[in-house]
Amino acid sequence: DTGVSQDPRHKITKRGQNVTFRCDPISEHNRLYWYRQTLGQGPEFLTYFQNEAQLEKSRLLSDRFSAERPKGSFSTLEIQRTEQGDSAMYLCASSLEGFTGIYGYTFGSGTRLTVV
Amino acid sequence: AQKITQTQPGMFVQEKEAVTLDCTYDTSDPSYGLFWYKQPSSGEMIFLIYQGSYDQQNATEGRYSLNFQKARKSANLVISASQLGDSAMYFCASEVYGNNRLAFGKGNQVVVIP
Questions:
Q1: What is the pLDDT of residue B85?
Q2: Above 60 in pLDDT, residue B45?
Q3: Exposed, middle or buried: residue B41 (CB in 10 Å: 0-12, 13-18, 19+)?
Q4: Residue in B23, B100, B106 to test binding to A, most A beta-carbons within 10 Å
Q5: What residues in A contact B95, CB-CB < 8 Å?
Q6: Is CB count within 10 Å lower at the N or C end of chain A?
Q7: Do A56 and B35 lie within an 8 Å CB cutoff?
Q8: Residue B39 and residue B17: Cα distance in Å, rounded?
Q9: Is the peptide bond before B114 cis (omega within 30 degrees of 0)?
């Protein structure tokens, strides 16, 4: 078990470009979550998947954002037509359905996006 | 909606001393969990300790303990015998059971000095 992996660790992009991030959860975890963390703030929930189904999306997830988890394993988060306000750390977490608390969420190291 | 409040300014702590980080939460749901995470400069959110709303005793994990005062909706983290590696941001978070997400506070910056 290598934990939750995110790729890339850092991404610098020009405004208007599209970017895609990848998250590989812990293999036996069937739930996967995306959070966004802006400077000086705590992480904010964006969306979560149970297996391949996207069950909930936050209002923070504008139409320019799309997340997928095609085979219930890894997930991708794409941002189209990036804006400077999209600059943030994007954190992925995974968990096993029905287990919260001490057995709950495992986070990755995040992808830090800078839009210039 | 869940709301987590962490209002302390950045803190400097002498190595080997204890530090208390304040956290208050606001939820009307009776079933919830409270978490503390550590975020070093590398960015990863590292789970430290968990307290369930129905737990009778305060949670402890090694040098970490959670001072849970349910009536005051307070869940303060105590780090004993601070080490240089404890320098990081610390986040308090809550989860209402069944909501499938964490609500985080803004964090507390801790710097441990030798």
A1: 96
A2: yes
A3: exposed
A4: B100
A5: 100, 104
A6: N
A7: no
A8: 20
A9: no
pLDDT given for residue A99 in this prediction: 67
Residue B51, both tokens: 């307290």
Q: Mind listing the pLDDT tens digit for each residue in B51-101?
A: 999 999 999 999 999 999 999 999 999 999 999 999 999 999 999 988 889
A67: amino acid identity, one letter:
A
Three-state SS string across B18-69, please?
Answer: CEEECCEEECCCCCEEEEEEEECCCCCCEEEEEEECCCCCCCEECCEEEEEE
Question: Whose CA is closest to A37, among B59, B94, B21, B89?
Answer: B89
Torsion of CA B50, B83, B38, A76, to 10 degrees: -130
Joined tokens for residue B92? 């308090």
| Structure confidence by residue, pLDDT tens digits, B11-43 | 999 999 999 999 999 988 999 999 999 999 988
| Chain B residues touching chain A at CB-CB below 8 Å | 4, 33, 35, 37, 42-47, 50, 52, 91, 93, 95, 97, 100-107
